[in-house]
Amino acid sequence: MTSLLGATVSSTVSGPASISGHLLNFHGPVAYALIGFLAFAEAALMVGFFIPGETAVVIGGVLAGLGKVNLGLVIVVVVVCAIAGDSVGFEVGRKAGPWLTSHRPLQGNSAVRSTMALLEKYGGPAVFLGRFIAFARAIIPGLAGMSGLRYRTFLFWNVLGGIAWGVGYTLL
């Protein structure tokens, strides 16, 4: 066991569970920062399939249950970071979306095409529902920015989804 910024990290955790295993050992400000960063980065950088935002949020709830962090503060951090991350993802999609979807791994991706079709058909409600689907949570904000969806509409549904997802998954 080693200490890292006030957190005890076990060196025996490895493989796919290593990130979540390490997160369980953090507490205090470092835990809030990591959980918030992962919730933010999942959609802000359109790399949610690589960054475990949902897992970090659930672990934040577990850490609160263990008394390592404050439950109310974890919920606030998660909700604010999730909403902010999606808003950044929207802007990335608005400015760089066509370039991103013309390059790997998004180029010609059938899931991207079908998600874009849902977004164009349902608009804001697709933003809300996409929050609860792993792949969609990562790409809907960027695709919404590309699709011409008004930011005001996006923000309304993003806030509703961010609150429902952040509170729900933290309490899960």
In short:
The protein is mainly alpha-helical. It contains eight helices and two strands.
Could you explain the architecture of this structure?
This protein has helices spanning 18-23, 28-44, 53-65, 71-101, 110-122, 124-130, 134-147, 151-171; strands at 2-4, 7-9. The two termini are 28 Å apart. The protein has a two-stranded antiparallel sheet with strand order 1-2. The model is unreliable at 1-16 (pLDDT under 50). A hairpin with a 2-residue loop joins strand 1 (2-4) and strand 2. The chain has 172 residues and is mostly helical.
Draw up the topology in text.
Elements: E1 2-4, E2 7-9, H1 18-23, H2 28-44, H3 53-65, H4 71-101, H5 110-122, H6 124-130, H7 134-147, H8 151-171
Antiparallel strand pairs: 1-2
Helix pairs in contact: 2-3, 2-4, 3-4, 3-8, 4-7, 4-8, 5-6, 5-7, 6-8
Secondary-structure element pattern, one letter each:
EEHHHHHHHH
Spans with pLDDT under 50 lasting ≥5 residues? 1-16
Rg, rounded, reads 17 Å
Total DSSP helices: 8
- How far the N terminus sits from the C terminus, by CA atoms, comes to 28 Å
* Strand residue percentage: under 5%
E-strand count: 2
Overall residue-averaged pLDDT value: 82
What's the main sheet like? 2 strands, antiparallel
What is the spatial order of strands in the main beta sheet?
1-2
Task: Provide the helix percentage.
Answer: over 70%
Structural class estimated from helices and strands: mainly alpha
User: Which outline best applies?
Assistant: elongated
